[in-house]
């Protein structure tokens, strides 16, 4: 079951509102009908953009909101295509005018012709183009108005900052203690726990040793490690122990985060990838309200079989900045276990227009920052085969496919697949070369 992320929509609407619509408005200033239609676009899009965060949260439980987001996504891409047509026509006319001026400068005959015949926005071809665009513009306007009406009926509104009450904070701190205190039920692994403890305590080497716990995601490797970590005999045997956040060894310097932090760990349910991803986010978040909001998110309560994605991973994606969400979702067009280099991924993002240009920052440096941000949050990880390459964990790849929905399509040459009319990005995976 796919869910639409607001990331691609948010950025696409930004582009439409920032430059594309204004450029088209200037181009059709002499055409009253088109000008009024585009002005209506510009007035409605900001209201829709303001409710995207709310819509992304509500779609989890409400199919009507999910359908609304899918229709909005289609409309945004269609509107972008139409505005591209206006931009192309402007460039074509500019080139035509330039060519006409060059010819006129070398031809006495051309100098005698009226300006309207040698280029400009008032050429017969320009007029024909604008008239031909009227039905397309009207169709988008009708869909836009329909979405605006449906938005109200679905109860979508702009999410405003919440004023946290002391009662809610108190409730969060009264939750049961977590894995850090050893207060967890873990059945059927007593033998493995005892074996690990024995190995750790019987190691007489002066060198640092590493004891690895290997297994598929969700098997409880982290929970087992925590049980060993909290065992009384281990506490007595070792002078120092270290443990998942806040760039610190423990909560001693951040006591206000201790209770809610331990509760978040418990909600990760022993999955190391989820704990690492959320921990990477929390270590840069220094407000207690934000930690409590993470802990109380409804996403934790989603049944995993509803979408096949562990809630903790969905939550880590949900709190990514919009520009990183878009870049991450795009990566679903690659197959699982595909190893890639940083430069390769950045070039693709750049080609798709995903990188936000900033003053005094080179576009390649912006791409590097995006990439490293995703690495630091565990959405990408260094390949075990070659340190210069990266790979997405299978669970992260599943997450990317979920949030991308039908927008990204990956085709395999040995399978018959239907391409959705909603698809905008695609890749073809060939298992062998054709002879």
Level of helix content? 55-70%
Shape: elongated
Major β-sheet profile: 2 strands, antiparallel
**Count of beta strands:** 4
Report strand order across the widest sheet. Answer: 1-2
Strand share of the residues?
under 5%
Q: What is the domain total for the residues?
A: 3
Q: What number is the mean pLDDT?
A: 77
Describe the protein's architecture and organization:
The protein is mainly alpha-helical. The chain has 3 domains: 6-153, no CATH class; 166-316, no CATH class; 320-429, Winged helix-like DNA-binding domain superfamily/Winged helix DNA-binding domain (Arc Repressor Mutant, subunit A), CATH 1.10.10.10. Helices cover 56% and strands 3% of the residues. A two-stranded antiparallel sheet has the order 1-2. A hairpin with a 7-residue loop joins strand 1 (381-382) and strand 2. Helix 4 packs antiparallel against helix 6 and helix 16 (342-352) packs across helix 17 (363-376). The radius of gyration is 28 Å and the shape is elongated. It starts with 5 loop residues before the first helix and ends in a 6-residue tail after the last strand. 28% of the residues are buried. Residues 1-5, 115-121 and 160-187 have low confidence and may be disordered.
């Amino acid at each position: 079951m796919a869910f639409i992320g607001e990331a691609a929509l948010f950025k696409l609407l930004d582009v439409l509102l920032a430059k594309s619509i204004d450029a088209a408005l200037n181009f059709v200033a002499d055409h009253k009908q088109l000008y009024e239609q585009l002005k209506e676009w510009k007035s409605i899009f900001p209201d829709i953009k303001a409710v995207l965060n709310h819509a992304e949260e509500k779609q989890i439980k409400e199919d009507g909101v999910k359908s609304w987001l899918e229709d909005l996504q289609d409309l945004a891409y269609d509107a972008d295509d139409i505005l591209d047509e206006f931009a192309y026509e402007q460039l074509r006319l500019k080139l035509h005018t330039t060519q006409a001026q060059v010819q006129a400068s070398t031809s006495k005959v051309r100098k005698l012709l009226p300006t309207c015949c040698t280029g400009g926005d008032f050429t017969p071809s320009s007029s024909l183009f604008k008239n031909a665009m009227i039905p397309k513009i009207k169709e988008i306007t009708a869909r836009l108005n329909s979405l605006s009406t449906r938005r109200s009926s679905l109860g979508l509104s702009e999410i405003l900052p919440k004023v946290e009450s002391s009662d809610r904070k108190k409730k969060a701190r009264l939750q049961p203690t977590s894995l850090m205190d050893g207060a967890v039920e873990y059945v059927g692994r007593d033998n493995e726990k005892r074996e690990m403890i024995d190995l750790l305590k019987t190691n007489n080497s002066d060198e640092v040793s590493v004891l690895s716990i290997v297994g598929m995601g969700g098997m409880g490797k982290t929970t087992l490690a925590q049980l060993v970590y909290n065992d009384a005999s281990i506490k007595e045997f070792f002078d120092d122990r270290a443990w998942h956040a806040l760039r610190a060894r423990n909560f001693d310097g951040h006591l206000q985060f201790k209770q809610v932090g331990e509760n978040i760990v418990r909600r990760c349910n022993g999955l190391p990838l989820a704990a690492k991803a959320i921990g990477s986010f929390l270590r840069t978040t220094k407000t207690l309200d934000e930690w409590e909001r993470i802990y109380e998110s409804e996403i934790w309560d989603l049944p995993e079989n509803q979408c096949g994605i562990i809630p903790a991973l969905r939550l880590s994606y949900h709190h990514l900045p919009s520009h990183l969400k878009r870049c991450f979702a795009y990566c679903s067009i690659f197959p699982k276990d595909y190893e890639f280099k940083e430069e390769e991924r950045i070039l693709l993002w750049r080609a798709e227009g995903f990188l936000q240009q900033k003053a005094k920052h080179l576009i390649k440096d912006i791409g590097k920052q995006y990439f490293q941000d995703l690495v630091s949050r565990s959405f990408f990880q260094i390949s075990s085969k070659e340190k210069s390459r990266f790979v997405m964990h299978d669970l992260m790849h599943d997450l990317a496919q979920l949030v991308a929905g039908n927008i990204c399509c990956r085709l395999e040459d040995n399978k018959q697949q239907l391409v959705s009319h909603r698809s905008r990005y695609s890749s073809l995976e060939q298992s062998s070369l054709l002879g």
